[in-house]
Amino acid sequence: MSAIAIIGIIIIIVGIICFFFYRSSLDKLRNILATETSKVQDIIEEHKVISSDKVIGTGSFEKKVELKGDVECDSPLISEIGKTECVYYKTEVRRKWEGREHHTDSQGHHEDRTVTGEDTVSSQTQSKEFFINDGTGKIKVCPDGAEIDLISVIDRFEPASGATMSGSYLKFGNFSLNIGGFNFGGDARRTLGYHIKESIFPLGRRVYILGIANDSTGELRVSRAINKGDKFIITTKSEEELIAQTKKSANILKIVALIGVPVGILCFIIGLFIK
Fold it and tell me: In which domain, by residue range, is 17 found?
């Protein structure tokens, strides 16, 4: 199979993937537009009525809700590297290395090349239940499984000269990270440095939440839905910003899908006639 045919197949696959992401963006947009903003006080009152019913009782309440308010948490998380109070954080440390690689081309010529790459040394994600307060009341939010719009607080490269190993701990200045039994690839690879990234969902910010208010655990809270079609979104963006961003993403994905698939098919057909 010629290189053009292979490129055509790759373009077709990319186009199909973009189409599925486009459909997902449309589902997200429909969820946002179809759900009116609720007041926490109204949700609490509605839950009281249903849970106090002798026939229905606790455990039966479920309602899709859109909430806008402030994040509150009595005992927040402390992010691993930035030591910032938050309710969700994601930390990743990647080691950048350089090494020699033996290469043989199609004519049988041999050569050694200098190559670079990255390995994930550590990847940590932690979340904490919190409350959203909209002024009329507050309700607990369980962020597990949500599409969370994190804020980047650390994104830097630390040269290897500034890091040291002590047992299973990798140290950068005052910060130390337990990397356990991570394999550094032996002496053939020279460590150039470490790319450190940390993103958080902070306290005290006004947020937009789209999810399901329910009492399936016996306690009223907002969490993800069982129905795959229902979205669970937690973001610091306003509803208007979120709608505009989702529309833009959907349009780009649609264009790539509509152009990519026909172009890929054309390349594949042309490639079949080229040796």
Answer: 3-272
